[in-house]
Amino acid sequence: MDKIDRKILSALHHDARITNLALAEKVCLSTSPCSARVRRLEKEGVIEKYVTIYDRHSIGVPDTAIIEFMFESQDEESFKTFEDHIATMPEVIEAHLTTGEYDCFMKVAVAGTKGYEEFLINKLWKIEGIKNTRSSLTLRCFKQSYSPAP
After folding, report:
1. Surface-to-core class of residue 18, CB atoms within 10 Å of its CB (0-12 exposed, 13-18 middle, 19+ buried)
2. Domains and CATH numbers, the chain
3. What is the largest CA-CA distance in the chain?
4. Model pLDDT for residues 41-88, shown as the tens digit of each residue
5. Distance CA 12, CA 47 (A)
6. Cβ distance 97 to 103 under 8 Å?
7. At residue 130, what are phi and psi to the nearest 5 degrees?
8. What 3 state SS string does 117-139 have?
9. In what order do the strands lie in the sheet with 130-137?
10. Is 114 within 8 Å of 61 (Cβ atoms)?
11. Which tens digits make up the pLDDT trace of 92-134?
């Protein structure tokens, strides 16, 4: 990757719907080489996918819960079972296996404390093998990014 590739990634990071013409102008290339570079970055997996980010207030889940928890057993079968369960839960924004006191960190979109309670009782606590949860509701998001800037 060179400086131009990084400029392309930076521009796409801020606006993935930018036209090839505007992108080419932004990175000081003609349209054909610019398009070829984007296709190469996609083919090489540098650009994994393009996504739509929506306003969570508009769809009724404006709040974020951060949940940490432990598994009863730390083995691949338990992790796979957990992964299969959360794959069906649209509220789950992120889930990570972590080091430290708790085994997992999860970020969940909810509608207030009532929505959070419903998620815990009706979904998370129904997954066999989860013990000891610790949660927080966020008050404000200071920064949100989906990939580091190139």
Report:
1. middle
2. 3-43 (1.10.10.10), 63-137 (3.30.70.920)
3. 57
4. 999 999 999 998 889 999 999 999 999 999 999 899 989 999 999 999
5. 9
6. yes
7. -100, 135
8. HHHHHHCHHHCCCEEEEEEEECC
9. 92-97, 104-110, 63-71, 130-137
10. no
11. 999 999 999 999 999 999 999 999 999 999 999 999 999 899 9
